[in-house]
Amino acid sequence: MRRAALPVLAVFLLASACMSGQGTTEEPKDSWSAPPEARSRQNPVEASESSVERGRMLYRGNCYLCHGPEGHGDGPWVEQLPETPSDLTDPEKMRGMSDGEIFWKISRGREQMPAFEKQLSEHQRWDVVNYLRWLGRAPEGSE
Ligand code: HEC
Fold first, then answer.
1. Measuring from each residue's beta carbon to the nearest atom of ligand 1, which residues come in under 6 Å?
2. In a domain, 108, yes or no
3. Which residues partner with 113 through β-bridges?
């Protein structure tokens, strides 16, 4: 019995190596986190109604095609993308990110997610952060 175990193990290892190599696993890829100094950066723009409104317009123009009308990662471009855009209303995800971290990610981008450092002013990027906070707010009565 002991001698038979090795080849079985080898086949198993080989098979699992092939599978992970093709990215067929459901594991999310390595997490994306901002450096500490970006995370602790304070949002200088008050989340006023007008900031959220400006953020909404900027989102429509720059983010909606990928992240979708409500931020669920289901915009019209999604089928063209090799990777699904993040759901920006996922409470766990959004609670885990500070405003500074969201700002940093919007500024820098990663792979399919474009960098907006040059396209949007700092103030505009904070407006978008305020809009995303508004978008992801808890539905009434849930808390
Ligand atoms: C071309 C499609 C595309 C556009 C346009 C786009 N995104 Fe993304 N976005 C993505 C993808 C894909 C990811 C996942 C990137 C990754 O994890 O590597 C992402 C990730 C993010 C994240 C990080 C969430 C996380 O999981 O950590 C934030 C925040 C974000 N986008 C906000 C925005 C905002 C705000 C805009 C508009 C100013 C925008 N995105 C425009 C495709 C897009």
1. 32, 62-63, 65-67, 77, 81, 83, 85-86, 88, 93, 102, 105-106, 110-114, 116, 128
2. yes
3. 110
